[in-house]
Amino acid sequence: MAIIASVALLITEHRSHRLDSLRATLSVLVDPLKYLVDLPTGLIAQTADSVRSYSALKKENTQLRDEQFIDKTRLLKFDSLEKENIRLRALLENSFKLGEQLLIAELLSINTAPYENIVVVNKGTRFGVHPQQPVLDANGVVGQVFRALPFSSEIMLITDPNHAIPVQVNRNGLLTIAVGSGQLNRLNLPFLPNNADIRPGDLLITSGLGGTFPSGYPVAVVDDFTPMTNKPFVNITATPKAMLDRNRELLIVWSDSSPVSLTTPSTSSEKKPGASEGEQPETAAGSGLTRKASAGAGPGTDRDE
Question: Per CATH, the architecture of 1-45+100-158+242-258+278-305 is what?
């Protein structure tokens, strides 16, 4: 009977709305207990999720930092490659203007000896490089090959104290010689008289004399100077056009024109008919000049000559 009564009560409670108020009153008392029972489980789950999220975020942050560092390094490399590309494009454009056989050489080392401006590049005799070849950059004359080795070459800059280059003033064609001062930003013009027609800002270009440097290449710009009336020669300096302290690539040039020879053909060295035994040929007086000219222009000649 008790079971039947309980079943009847449950059916009545399920189908009738009379006990809704009692059910609502009991839920107010029971629901907090359910939340209190579920609280530890919820806190543990939330704490685990927070720890997992923190670990994932920390790992992702570390990964992003590493990627940022790699990307910055790549950007630096790309920036370097961009600047190198700009320099090579400038050299390439300049090579079309030169119209001669050219070879791009990269800088390997710099001679740090005082008052000695010599650099080493990565091209040598196996590429056809030989001494006395002119060397340029995108702005002007750099120097000439001083010593050629199989896998490298030494370049004497135009500012070396042992270097001299024939130049002329682009404005009026005045010829002179620019001598190295030992400083990368200065050339000396020691052979101009006090009344020479030269002004500050004049562009000096290669004159082509001597056969080493083809004519027309920019060399330097004349600095400000003060004429001295009490001296026969004026102290004039010039700033090189080439970026001698910033170049990474250089142009080694083969000139299309052959060096000027002051001798006549080999038949002229023979004794003329009717000449006496002690009489020398007419070209003998010029043979010394010929050797000197070829020493400045011919391949395989050392600087000490």
Answer: Beta Barrel (2.40)
